[in-house]
């Protein structure tokens, strides 16, 4: 515990409850998830860059989405893995906590902006295919990606600044495996009702600001697909959107439970589970979601594997 008039200069991450044996099992599981996440998303980035069949807006956005997934999970998981190996609580400095929280929230905001842009891209591809190349030209795509990254980082400056302007005098033990904002607010001896309400409104703006274009886009997409007379045509049209739609459901679903709530300081166990979904499970699943149901990506992977096999034989 800290004195009534002092603020924490470092924090202790409580991590996961349980025995050392359980921690070793969790380490093995999360290390496997992290390794597959890095390899899967890196492979997507490489094939999008080198394969000419994937030189289109959808795969350009997918490459940036994969880069975001690598960064999000890298900000959280190595710290979590190190904590699972330590015999006691993990120490993190105030500066490191600020940087971790800012990058985590900024990259998450960028990802939602990009998912909204990808929904609009799918709408243009399905509902206005003749003008697709004109509307979604390379200049437009580059500007969309740049604005997504800039918006994500600028938008989170004030929330993180306001969070760490609070005085943390109740304790310096964070009941999570990373610097979770909800748990940090619990440690403050200030009245956090106003800042929690503002953070709630900002979370609503980010999530629903990108979710509404996604819902509108998919409403038109579904309406257009249902008008296609042949079953094979409908199946082909929907297959171009299925991966993105699955990613949207998983990503928005978990973050709606985590951030869009008036009371930020809710149960630690609940926050821990949903945080794992956002930072570990979703980045792990995305490479499979975007490859297993995508014929072009599968063909590119198959050709790439054949090329590497030929190189090794020679």
Automatic annotation (TrEMBL):
GO terms for molecular function: G protein-coupled receptor activity; olfactory receptor activity. The chain crosses the membrane at residues 25-50, 62-86, 92-120, 141-161, 193-216, 237-260, 272-292. Residues 40-290 form the G-protein coupled receptors family 1 profile domain. It comes from the Eukaryota. GO terms for cellular component: plasma membrane. It is found in: Cell membrane. Keywords: Cell membrane, G-protein coupled receptor, Membrane, Olfaction, Receptor, Sensory transduction, Transducer, Transmembrane, Transmembrane helix. The keyword Cytoplasm does not apply. It is a multi-pass membrane protein. Putative odorant or sperm cell receptor. Belongs to the G-protein coupled receptor 1 family. This is Olfactory receptor. It comes from Panthera leo (Lion). The gene is OR9A4.
């Amino acid at each position: 515990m800290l004195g009534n008039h002092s603020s924490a200069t470092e924090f202790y991450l409580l991590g996961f409850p349980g025995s050392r044996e359980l921690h070793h099992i969790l380490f093995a599981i999360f290390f496997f998830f992290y390794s597959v996440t890095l390899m899967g998303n890196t492979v997507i980035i490489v094939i999008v860059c080198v394969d000419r069949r994937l030189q289109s807006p959808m795969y350009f956005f997918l490459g940036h989405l994969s880069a975001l997934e690598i960064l999000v999970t890298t900000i959280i998981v190595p710290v979590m893995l190190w904590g699972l190996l330590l015999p006691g609580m993990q120490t993190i400095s105030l500066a490191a906590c600020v940087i971790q929280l800012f990058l985590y929230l900024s990259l998450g905001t960028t990802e939602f902006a990009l998912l909204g842009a990808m929904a609009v891209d799918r709408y243009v591809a399905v509902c206005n295919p003749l003008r697709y190349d004109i509307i979604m030209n390379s200049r437009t795509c580059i500007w969309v990606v740049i604005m997504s990254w800039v918006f994500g980082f600028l938008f989170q400056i004030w929330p993180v600044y306001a969070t760490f302007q609070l005085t943390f005098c109740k304790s310096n033990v964070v009941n999570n495996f990373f610097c979770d904002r909800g748990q940090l607010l619990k440690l403050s001896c200030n009245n956090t009702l106003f800042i929690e309400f503002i953070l709630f409104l900002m979370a609503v703006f980010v999530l629903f600001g990108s979710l509404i274009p996604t819902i509108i886009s998919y409403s038109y997409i579904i309406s257009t697909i249902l008008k296609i007379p042949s079953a094979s045509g409908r199946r082909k049209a929907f297959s171009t959107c299925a991966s993105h739609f699955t990613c949207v459901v998983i990503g928005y679903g978990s973050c709606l439970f985590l951030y869009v709530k008036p009371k930020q300081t809710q149960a630690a166990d609940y926050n821990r589970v949903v945080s794992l979904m956002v930072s570990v499970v979703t980045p792990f699943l995305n490479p499979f979601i975007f490859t297993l149901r995508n014929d072009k990506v599968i063909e590119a992977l198959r050709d790439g594997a054949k090329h590497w096999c030929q190189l090794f034989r020679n």
